[in-house]
Design a protein that fits this description.
alpha+beta, Thiol Ester Dehydrase, Chain A, five-stranded antiparallel beta sheet, 5 strands, 39% strand, globular
């Protein structure tokens, strides 16, 4: 089946991902050396991961056996802090194809309201190709 015969995802399709913030999800948990000092609140990197997970879930209907979607570009702002124990939720809304990529609007929320927003591009690749490419990079 050619790329043009791939099933399509309707614009406006949404998917979500949510969880309760744990200590391991905080900016403080990212500290790796003495002198690294970050607050014990939900880390921006974890918010981005949650947003990507929501977009990946939205793309499941497009995937064939042996394929997955990978993030290739993201632009986000993180505008509010969430404490440990708070529930965070990301919503990805499909905006349509962008060449061979797939564009999403991203939103993140906690118990008190919006905490972040942005845009995201994902690509469809074979699992075999992405793993082989990573291995080649490490071999030099």
């Amino acid at each position: 089946m050619s790329e043009s015969e791939r099933s399509t995802l309707p614009v406006g399709t949404q998917a979500e991902a949510a969880f309760t913030v744990q200590d391991s999800d905080t900016a403080r948990a990212l500290s790796i050396a003495p002198g690294d000092d970050f607050p014990p609140v939900f880390a921006t990197s974890r918010m981005i991961a949650l947003m990507e997970l929501a977009a990946a879930r939205a793309m499941r209907p497009l995937l064939r056996r042996g394929e997955l979607s990978v993030g290739v570009e993201i632009e986000v702002r993180h505008c509010a802090a969430t404490p440990v124990g708070g529930t965070v939720r990301a919503v990805a809304t499909y905006l349509g194809p962008d060449g061979k990529m797939h564009r999403f609007k991203l939103e993140a929320f906690d118990d008190a309201g919006p905490i972040g927003a942005g845009t995201h591009l994902r690509a469809i690749v074979t699992t075999e190709r992405i793993v082989a490419g990573a291995e080649r990079r490490m071999k030099g």
